[in-house]
Amino acid sequence: MRRAVFPGSFDPITNGHYDIIKRALPLFDEIIVAIGVNSDKKYMFSLEERKRFIEETFRNEPKIKVATYEGLTTEFCFQVDAKFILRGLRNPADFEFEKAIAHTNRFLTKLETVFLLTAASTSFISSSIVRDVIRNKGDYTRLVPQPVRI
Ligand code: ADP
After folding, report:
1. Ligand 1 centroid from CA 85, angstroms
2. I need a labelling partner for 27 at 20 to 30 A (CA). Which of 84, 123, 138, 139 fits?
3. Full-prediction pTM beyond 0.70?
4. Are 52 and 45 spatial neighbours (Cβ–Cβ below 8 Å)?
């Protein structure tokens, strides 16, 4: 079973995440969208809300599972028997950041990180920009999947 973990905060899931997950589907038998819980971080949406947004977005896609985890992503991958980590790349800053993490994970474990380049149409979207638009009462509906349009 070719299983990948797509880790992130998903506060909230955006059309950028959606694009990466959909395009990764043909590559894997199962993708676990894994919401990392960091008790030091303040979130706009609760863990339950973030999980529900993702579950509803992919309710017709049996190959996609949603989970939450605490601690190291690599440890979670072992627990669920995933050999791959999926990440999206938007720009050189993402690349530099991801490179260090992927090297570390590969150094410490045998996990491979699979990167997909964002679609040009969603490359500018980030959860933090979406949160900013929501906070300032802007129209964020075209930046996120339907279940997030609250
Ligand atoms: P984190 O808290 O680790 O930044 P995010 O939930 O923001 O997690 O992102 C999870 C993954 O989705 C990361 O690999 C990130 O690069 C990717 N991602 C976020 N936004 C986009 C986008 N617009 N296009 C492609 N990938 C994206």
Report:
1. 13
2. 123
3. yes
4. no
